[in-house]
Structure formats: structure tokens, C-alpha cells
Amino acid sequence: QVQLVESGGGLVQPGGSLRLSCAASGSLFTIYDMGWYHQAPGKQRELVATITSGGIIIYADSRKGRFTISRDNAKSTVYLQMNSLKPEDTAVYYCNAKQSIPPRREYWGQGTQVTVSS
Q: Which one, of 81, 71, 70, lies nearest residue 20 by Cα?
């Protein structure tokens, strides 16, 4: 089992930047595909970006060019650098870990609020 703790959320003005961090503990970090999802009020949780255990990265189309996902296996941490933030980026951001090998268990963090407003 793995525990995920997100940090780095907050209030930022449009056009600003934030870096989210997700620290993992309790299991071998390198076997996990890691991802960031967001959920706005009244909406479903949606993918923002993922990075596999092998380093393959996928972004949601709307975030390409503005967001960057990365991982530091030595620190068991995944990051989401968010630039040129827009009000529509306002949401709770969740860290996700999925085993890259069977049984492919999946875990979620508690979420961190990001609010983009002037």
C-alpha cells in the first residue's frame, strides 16, 4: 500500500504559477505510474497529466504547454508545475498512483485546492 500527500495548492492570480508536490510513502515508488487529476465543483474528476514508471508522459490537451509533470524517484515525489494559470484551472487537484504491474492497485491522495482568481 502507498500513502500520498499533496501540497503546494493555494490562491494565485490569473497568469501566475504554482508547483504541486505529491510525496509517496509505504511502497516501492518506482513501480507506480503517477498522475494528477482535478475536480471542479459539480464536475467529474478529470486527468491533468500522467507520468509512467518508465517516464512516459501524457497531458490532457487543454494543459499542454502550460503544465509540466515530473517525478523524482529518489524522493518518491511527483510534481506538477502549473504556469499561466487561468480561472478555469480552479479545482481540487488529486495525486494518483497506480501499480504498473499486476494487480495494478490504485491509490489517491486527499487533494489540494487550487484557486485562480484576481
A: 81
Closest CA to 116 of 7, 20, 8, 12: 12
Q: How far apart are the first and last CA of the chain?
A: 40
Q: Quick one: which of 14, 71, 39 has its CA closest to 47?
A: 39
By C-alpha distance, which of 65, 69, 58 is closest to 93? Answer: 69
The vertex-93 CA angle with 80 and 60, nearest 5°, equals 65
Question: What is the distance between the alpha carbons of residues 36 and 26, in angstroms, rounded to a whole number?
Answer: 19
C-alpha of 28 from chain center: 18
Q: Read off the DSSP letter of residue 44.
A: -
pLDDT in tens, 25-64: 987 888 899 999 999 989 999 999 999 999 999 998 777 7
Query: Would you state the cell numbers that stand for residue 108, as one nine-digit string?
Result: 489517491
Tell me the average pLDDT across 2-21: 96
The alpha helices in the chain, defined as continuous H runs, are none
